[in-house]
Design goal:
heterodimer, A: alpha/beta, three-stranded mixed beta sheet, 11 strands, B: globular
């Protein structure tokens, strides 16, 4: 890659030179390369870089991110008082002797959940801790069990998506599958995917398109195009978040920690693709319709006043499955896969079809391509 | 320890002053309290049911709250137009006005913060934004810059007048050495808060209506017109209801600032309109929507076509010295200019940024009663805070409030 590039570009490693075995970063293939011992391996370098940037915080969660650091007494008292004041109410509930064990446990969970740290900075144990609490909390509330996971991104995976405009007929099975899979609010009819019905012969005229149609499809003289979160490689929504409640994971998914989001909606204003949704009121899903296979960053139950969005069904994709929309599509218009796997269907599409992306001039580098047969 | 004793006495004296006054004063404060309570009631409804009680939606996700926030940052920044001549250029005329201006800045900033909190989906987790306890996404997010500059400006604008008044309260002169560096800093800071707030919008490539290099400078120009216009109106009220002496000369000088800023603002408006309408592109659609409506949707037309004529009328009248120096006409101009800029920078700037949406979808926005209730309540809070600050400051400046060492 040229070093004097003025703007961001998505690197799929297509242009990377293949390293021959035995070669070293000094470019010397011979065995007596002197730099070999001093150079850090890529992994070690990454670790060192992370340590330098986040340091101790990486291993700590919640108050530990703050309290388990060296500080003077004055500082410590200042921080303690602030948090104690906020939590006094919760403590009094959890310590009361007249309330039942369940109530106490609930209060304890609520307390820990209210003051936990940012998921992005949690260690694996802490991630496990919070999903255990959330599962227990659901059980205490409804008497039913859910399964929630916190799988991390797998190395050498970068998720990408392609959409075949020729095949889509506008059936919207993807939309309903998405709503059911991701436990979206039924009251406000929240949908991550929008299918735009466009007139033949007018090209991509989004402003004349109808994304809320209720008639038989495919309608004559029309074609269909779906949009959702494009999981940009250079996502503008991530930069603007004041609290880092949204970020890009190692496998390219742009995710949100629903519990860390403060609901300022700056990311929504920053997204050029209408990819984000806000919970204007408390989201409701009938208990019998709740999808109980959940991921912390994916389809777990949200609360009022937080952002959410398509996660490429992180609860499925990280288990090696296709997102619900891909599986539900009756026409095969949707293709999902690992961009770093040279044998994946998505790579075949990118290499053999004339693909394009929306609003490329904005430099967001979406990982969502369109193509035609 | 002596300082604390004086400070305690100042607080007690100040409480004494602000709770006593004429019948009109009590009616004023009483009605403000009533409106604030009403606003609080509306806010509890919003807390209970979520932001769905407002007119905002996924398509237009910022509305009346952020509009008012943006406008009030400008009002707060305008205090600098009085600070600069007084403390830096040593123009004695403004000395009386400057304390009022800084009080206004404090009130405006408190309203700004209140509007931001009112707009949050999760006010209970706002501690996530506190550096140290939470995660502060600095310097990437312009919102964190805004948090820093607004709070810093609030601190400066509280500490300078407090120091001056504190000295005057004890019958001593304020030391120039102490407050002038602060005043100079606040001059730069004021420009900073407004530019940073403009960058909040300007930096979004997703919204072509905002993503425009003129936004920042235009923010400054309109702020330096609307802010001092409000100060003139406030000074007029103070002049007629209190013994605080403000000379005509002072008001006329501020009027000159308003005039120049309004003229520059108008030039920038022309430049913007030219760019949007001479060679319209896809990116001009928001401007088309704002000024002429799009596909039959025209909710903003009455607003903007109120604002533009008022703005032009005020600027033209102010331009003529004879008219400007007639105080009655001046007050009228200041009032219509204030209203015009409030519309332009609120409804005329924030809402069309979202319309049409990223894919050309047009969903209109109209604030709900609850939203208006909260907004009016916050304005009442600002007026309440300002009245308290101004009454204490005037009391001290008139020598009615003095520290007596018992």
């Amino acid at each position: 890659m040229s070093k004097n590039k003025k703007w961001y570009t998505l690197d799929l490693g297509l242009n990377k030179k293949k390293n021959t075995t035995g070669s070293c970063s000094c470019g010397n293939i011979s065995e007596n390369c002197t730099s070999a011992k001093q150079e850090l391996s890529a992994d070690e370098f990454y670790k060192a870089a992370v340590n330098a940037s986040i340091g101790e915080e990486r291993h700590k969660d919640g108050f530990d991110q703050v309290f388990d650091v060296k500080m003077d007494r004055r500082n410590a008292f200042k921080k303690l008082t602030a948090s104690l004041l906020i939590g006094a109410g919760a403590v009094s509930t959890s310590c009361s002797i007249i309330t039942g064990d369940d109530t106490k446990e609930k209060a304890q969970i609520n307390w820990e959940e209210q003051f936990k740290g940012n998921y992005k900075l949690m260690t694996d144990e802490e991630k496990q801790g919070t999903i255990d609490r959330l599962m227990r909390s659901y059980e205490l509330q409804t008497g039913k069990n859910i399964s929630m996971t916190a799988e991390n991104a797998v190395a050498n995976v970068l998720f990408g998506y392609a959409f075949n405009i020729s095949k889509c007929q506008g059936y919207m099975n993807c939309v309903s599958a998405c709503v059911e899979e991701n436990n979206q609010d039924r009251n406000s009819q929240m949908q991550y995917i929008r299918i735009h019905e466009m007139k033949d012969g007018e090209g991509f005229k989004f402003d004349n398109a109808d994304d809320n149609y209720y008639h038989e499809v495919p309608a004559e003289g029309h074609f269909y195009m779906g949009t959702q979160c494009f999981h940009c490689d250079n996502p503008p929504c991530v930069d603007v978040c004041p609290v880092q409640a949204t970020w890009k994971e190692e496998d390219g998914l742009v995710v949100i920690d629903y519990d860390w989001c403060v609901g300022c909606r700056y990311c929504m204003a920053a997204c050029p693709y209408d990819g984000r949704r806000f919970n204007w009121s408390k989201p409701e899903v009938p208990e019998n319709e709740v999808n109980k296979n959940q991921h912390y960053l994916g389809n777990r139950m949200r609360k009022k006043g937080v952002m959410e969005k398509c996660t490429f069904c992180v609860q499925r994709s990280r288990k090696g499955k296709n997102p619900a929309c891909v599986e539900a599509c009756p026409t095969g218009a949707r293709i999902f896969g690992n961009l770093l796997d040279p044998n994946s269907t998505i790579r075949w599409v990118l290499e053999n079809k004339k693909v394009f992306r929306l609003k490329e001039d904005l430099g967001t580098e979406p990982k969502f391509w369109y193509f035609m047969d | 320890m002596g300082v604390f004793k004086v400070f305690k006495s100042l607080v007690i004296d100040s409480l004494d002053t602000i709770t006593k006054g004429s019948k009109k004063y009590h009616i004023w404060m009483g009605s403000l309290t009533l409106v604030m309570l009403l606003g609080m009631y509306c806010y509890t409804l919003q807390l209970d049911q979520g932001l769905s009680v407002t007119g905002m939606s996924d398509r237009v996700s910022w509305g009346l709250y952020i509009s008012n926030f943006t406008f009030l940052v400008g009002v707060a920044a305008a205090a600098v137009m009085l600070v600069m001549p007084t403390y830096v250029l040593k123009d004695i005329d403004f000395k009386q006005a400057v304390l009022i201006g800084e009080g206004l800045a404090v009130a405006a900033l408190i309203m700004c913060l209140a509007f931001v909190v009112a707009d949050m989906g999760g006010p209970s987790v706002l501690w996530h934004m506190i550096p140290g306890i939470g995660v502060f996404n600095f310097p990437n997010s312009m919102l964190t810059w805004d948090v820093i500059v607004l709070n810093g400006y609030l601190f400066i604008n509280i500490s300078i007048p407090l120091y001056i008044l504190f000295r005057h309260y004890q019958g001593k002169e304020a030391k120039k050495k102490v407050y002038v560096p602060g005043a100079v800093l606040s001059v730069f800071w004021a420009v900073g808060i407004h530019l940073v707030t403009a960058f909040l919008y300007q930096g979004l490539q997703a919204r072509p209506f905002w993503n425009n290099a003129l936004l920042g400078p235009r923010f400054l120009a309109s702020a330096f017109a609307a802010g001092p216009a409000l100060i003139i109106l406030v000074l007029a009220v103070i002049r007629s209801y209190t013994a605080f002496k403000i000379e005509d000369k002072t008001i006329k000088k501020i009027a000159l600032i308003v005039t120049v800023a309004a003229q520059i603002n108008l030039i920038m408006l022309v430049s913007e309109l030219f760019k949007e309408f001479y060679a319209p592109t896809h990116h001009s659609e928001s401007a088309y929507y704002l000024f002429f409506g799009l596909h039959g949707k025209n909710a903003l037309l009455p607003w903007i076509w109120t604002a533009i004529p008022l703005n032009i009328l005020a600027t033209i009248i102010l331009t003529f010295g004879v008219l400007r120096n007639n105080l009655k006409i001046l007050y009228f101009c200041c009032f219509i200019l204030f209203v015009a800029i409030w519309i332009e920078k609120g409804f005329g700037l924030i809402v069309p940024g979202f319309i049409p949406g990223p894919y050309g979808k047009i969903v209109e926005y109209l604030p709900t009663g609850i939203e208006v209730g909260v907004t009016v309540g916050i304005w009442a809070l600002g007026a309440f805070v300002f009245t308290i600050l101004a009454k204490t400051a005037i009391g001290i400046e008139l020598g009615l409030l003095r520290y007596r060492n018992k």
